[in-house]
TrEMBL record:
The chain crosses the membrane at residues 35-55, 64-85, 91-109, 121-144, 283-305. It comes from Halobacterium jilantaiense. This is Preflagellin peptidase FlaK. Its main location: membrane. One of its GO terms (cellular component) is plasma membrane. It holds the Pfam family Peptidase_A24.
Amino acid sequence: MVDASIPDLLRLVAVPALGWAAIRDVSTRRVPNDLWGPLAFLGLLLLLWDGFVALGQPGAFTPFVVRAAFSLLFVIPLAYGFWYVGGFGGADARAFMVLAVLFPTYPYYQVAGSAFPEVQTTLGVFSLTILTNTVLIGLAYPLVLGLRNAFAGEFSVVMFVGRRVAVDDLPEVHGSLLEDGSGFTRNGLDLDALRMYLRWRGLTLSDLRVDPELRDPDTLPDEPNEPTDGAVVTDGSGDPWGAAAFLDDIDHSAYGTTPAQLREGLDLVADREDVWVTPGVPFLVPLFVGLVVALTFGDVLFYVLDAFGVAA
């Protein structure tokens, strides 16, 4: 039996919704934008509902307004800022913004005589707890990746941000190359852009690897195919591979890919048997875990600080 207010019970719809989004993020790196609008609208309704309730309780309205304002005016711009500088993907930023509206203050649930979340912060802004939980959980990802590589005997300067992948497997892999013709790089070819290029030319990666003549732009199709968005399926001798022709022909950006990046990436995957790839962090996964942990245990940072004798 769960004892909670109606608004707090309705907020729990975010758990299965975000869980589904996390699964989509892992499997396709694509989350429909249509998911966030209804959740944001629900959050606004529940925010007004809680505001009217707090208005009728002595001394409750001012703390509620302060916490709600902090959530809306600090957490939302912070999420936008992370997206703007490239720290978050678009879906990650939208998810944080929606949660800032849905969970401006701490919810309260009583289950079998136990109260959840177990720990609340003094500030009392629940969306900030979700954010800090997500960041702390996300920090574990590079450590797990590094340990995985170490156990596999793959020691490299990029072992905490990438993994070695067989080139033949790249059509089913998310992320971007960590290498180009000069060595390791932070600006390697996005694998979605690689898939777009192959679909545009009507080729498979195997075709590209076995036929060196395909580097000649004269082999470009007269009527190129639709490049799609590069998702994994659940014009002269001065333009090797026809990289510039491809980017000029499509009517949208290939994830910011330049002709030079595309040429270097194609040269690499055409000649190598394996490459280092950074899968990136499917950030909706730690966000989902951070939300579930926040709803049950509360603020992870509190437990960390408490372990070092800092938290009261």
